Amino acid sequence: MTKQERERKVLEELRKLYSSREWRLNNLYHIVNKYGQDEILKLNPQQKRVLIDKIWPLNIILKARQLGLSTGIDIAGLDACLFHPNITFGIIDATLPDAKKKLDKCRYAYNHLPEPLKNKFKLVKDNEQELEFSNGSVITADTSFRGSTVNMLHISEYAKICATAVSY
Known about the structure:
The chain is an alpha/beta fold.
């Protein structure tokens, strides 16, 4: 097999792997684990169930705390923004600092991508509340999205938001 044929075979295998959302979520994205250590995200059973097995256009997740679902959802949002052009992913939380922390997880994962991927999906805007990529996709963190159209929305602490936002 020639060098050119080997390179073509490697590229073909990479295309296959990169076309799998499940593979990307388990192999591309770095996170900081609960011990403060950098590691590649490996979907736990709860994350896999929500993000791969039971994905639906509208998911309301009643859950225990500390299952990694916010991290998994935010990384899945980053993945959607990178591998699909013109996606708007919104992160809503009860407070702006909490929403920004979730955006920081996306930023961390992006900053630790292999260089060829960062070159393909360049970051064109990076501020406290927004990441925008060269393919037109954007991730925004805030406490609401009135008047904005989003393709994917993660609302964290929904009960707390409802309890504090309602006025009588």
